[in-house]
Amino acid sequence: MEISALQKFRYAYKPKLPAGLAGEITEIALELGAPTESVSDQGELRELFKHTYGKPLVTFVTGKNEKIQKKLTVGVILSGGQAPGGHNVIAGLFDGLKKGNTDSKLYGFLGGPGGFTDNKALEITGDFIDHYRNTGGFDMIGSGRTKIETPEQFAAALETAKKLNLDAVVIIGGDDSNTNAALLAEYFLSQGSAVQVIGCPKTIDGDLKNQYIEASFGFDTAVKTYSELIGNIARDANSAKKYWHFIRLMGRSASHIALECALQTQPNICLISEEVEAKNFSLGRIVDQICDAVVKRAENKENFGVVLIPEGVVEFIPEMKKLIAELNDVIAVNAETFATLGGFEDQRAWLAGILSPGSHSLFQSLPGEIAQQLIMDRDPHGNVQVSRIETEKLLISMVEKKLSKLKKAGTYGGKFSALGHFFGYEGRCAFPSNFDADYCYTLGFSAFVLIASGLTGYLSSVRNLTAPADQWTAGGVPLTMMMNMEHRKGSKKPVIKKALVELEGAPFKTFVEARDTWAVKTSFVFPGAIQYYGPPELCDQPTKTLRLEHRAEGR
Ligand code: FBP
Predict the structure, then answer these.
(1) What kind of fold does domain 219-426+505-552 have according to CATH?
(2) Cβ(100) – ligand 1 distance below 6 Å
(3) Between 92 and which of 321, 346, 405, 441 could a Cys-Cys bridge form, CB atoms 3.0 to 4.6 Å apart?
């Protein structure tokens, strides 16, 4: 198979490990903290997680560890959307297992959690893994979005674990997948099984984080990839001076991606969904904000610009949120009838009789393709597929309408020509940055240490991430510590709490201080491509979000 020059060099890259994990394997001991509590709903969660609730935080320290050389058989699952660095989590886990005991085995479940319940696995060997080290993608074993939720699925997972003689399974996923990890850990113990479950925090969206999980892996590489592209577009806009670029960015719920890209590239406008929700910004208010910048820049003869739009914003605009919630309900309750309707026009007509008057008139006013995208299938976790809703097109058409009114009124004399873009898949499988390559390898290695030490129901955790990698500290966070109860698909469910952009947080405040200037005055920054070889200040820097957060905490 032909490979690129970069791929060849990346195969040979040796990820950096924290000093405490890089030495003798028998010298990695555990320090246990005090018992923990969940984020909220402690009573209900203690009942639901009788065997796993409230475990202590774990930090790895130097000291004797008798158990670490035990022969182990472990399974690993990649779950959900791709994120750069997934292969390195598996490589770190594999190397840890083999360093502990050369007879230990690692199975990769194929195609996500479904591969676990269906017992579709391959044994990962040294030769095999060497073809994936430090590369992007999840193609080593594939991923999937199957949710393990029915009693049959839980039983099938246990059956697979028994058949393969597994000591443990590692689930590499986001908040939903790690909620699943917590449920599986509890289920196995409730069935008298000793199979351990350890999670690893993955998602480009950056919304699986808290005091102990400083970042989810993949975010660093994805935002750097998008920022490179946004910078290139901004420079083109500043050269040609004829287009407004409306760029929608992935990030299903949280706007961490858009915010970090804004901090890196300084666009004219960046919407932040969490602010839209907190301040109840209507669609009209958002359009006015964009038009205001277009008009002011036209007065300076700058008929070009860049607007960043988090893909999830549609679910945060109050009237759209209401419409989506109504659509979710009526489509779920009337699933059979809905499936019999001939096509979009029939669906639209049928919905007209069911939606509330406000939602109905909004639905009718939307461009046909947007309305159609709003009623597409939900994912297995019940989420609207926001990555398929072309919000950038909706905003362009609304801004065009508003500007033509302003033109007629004589308050706008510029030219408005807009292009829409969507950046998501471009960043999810990029070669992991050095940060993600090192971080992921450490997460995988730490997952091994947690398993070898006999723990279950933990998320692998690496902290102090703005320091050089040898100063990182590793350990584990009990999954139940990150949970609360939320309404999902009509009932209250235990879930890991999503971390949204904090409006009082340092990254957002830094953006707010500068955004009015950026809106009018061309202030673009061009970050360029991720660098893998060169000085650490060029190649190993974490995101601005992480640096600002740590600085605000006095680190
Ligand atoms: P995860 O939450 O599974 O990490 O996936 C995040 C994400 O990349 C979102 O940003 C995006 O909305 C979604 O996945 C796209 O899903 P799909 O891969 O099914 O197109």
Answers:
(1) Rossmann fold (3.40.50)
(2) no
(3) 441
